[in-house]
Amino acid sequence: MFTGIVTDIGKVLELEQQGDLRARIGTAYDVAGIDIGASIACDGVCLTVIALGRAPQNWFDVQISAESVSKTNIGAWSPGKRLNLERALKVGDELGGHIVSGHVDGVAEVVGIAPEGDSLRVTFRAPEPLARFIAPKGSVALNGTSLTVNEVNGCDFGINFIPHTQAVTTWNEVAVGQKINLEVDTMARYVARLREWE
């Protein structure tokens, strides 16, 4: 489990297609404190650490299944790509965002960007089957970042990125046309499922 509060910006160092895709991700995390088998959210995708190292910088390796590649934006990763990283929650950690599983529901697309004061208003288009789970003032996780929805219009929804969020995540690189990992709020998913049984 995660909170959607990004704690590092990592970088894809290497990609290798074996049976599954293997990625090496550079990080500022102290790898001495990461266990093999630990979960790290990489742009919102919960991935399992399979190897660790310190040269030429701290890094960890993950294996990514074809299923994960098909349901996320991982297929567009290339060496040098920067990633929002978050380590898994520990008992007693502050819940600063919202409960995030790291199980991406689908891929949204950036369809509009406009400055708004010191902030940046970004409009996303969700896949139609997921749009019903997105509500004004509700929560979503986009590329692993816990965010509050401002408005919803059909499949489109708007998010306001304050300067701090842009500074400590990869959201200062956002561009129209980008594919973004979308995880809808768990509560919204369960409420919708309960309504199906009414």
> Going across the major beta sheet, what is the strand order?
1-2-5-4-3-6
Shape: globular
Q: What is the terminal separation in angstroms?
A: 30 Å
> Structural class, please?
mainly beta
How large is the count of helical segments?
A: 4
- Tell me the strand percentage band: 35-45%
The ordered string of helix (H) and strand (E) elements is EEEEEHEEEHEEEHEH
Helical proportion, percent range: 10-25%
Catalytic activity: 2 6,7-dimethyl-8-(1-D-ribityl)lumazine + H(+) = 5-amino-6-(D-ribitylamino)uracil + riboflavin
Protein name: Riboflavin synthase
Pathway: Cofactor biosynthesis; riboflavin biosynthesis; riboflavin from 2-hydroxy-3-oxobutyl phosphate and 5-amino-6-(D-ribitylamino)uracil: step 2/2
InterPro entries: ATP_synth_asu-like_sf, Lumazine-bd, Lumazine-bd_dom, Riboflavin_synthase-like_b-brl
Question: What does it look like?
Answer:
It is a single chain. By secondary structure, the chain is mainly β. It is built from four helices and twelve strands, in the order E-E-E-E-E-H-E-E-E-H-E-E-E-H-E-H. It has helices spanning 66-71, 128-131, 163-168, 186-196, and strands at 8-17, 21-26, 39-42, 45-53, 59-64, 82-87, 106-116, 119-125, 139-142, 145-153, 156-161, 179-184. The chain has a six-stranded antiparallel beta barrel. Strands 7-8-11-10-9-12 form a six-stranded antiparallel barrel. The longest helix is centred in the last third of the chain and has 11 residues, at 186-196. It starts with 7 loop residues before the first strand and ends with a helix.
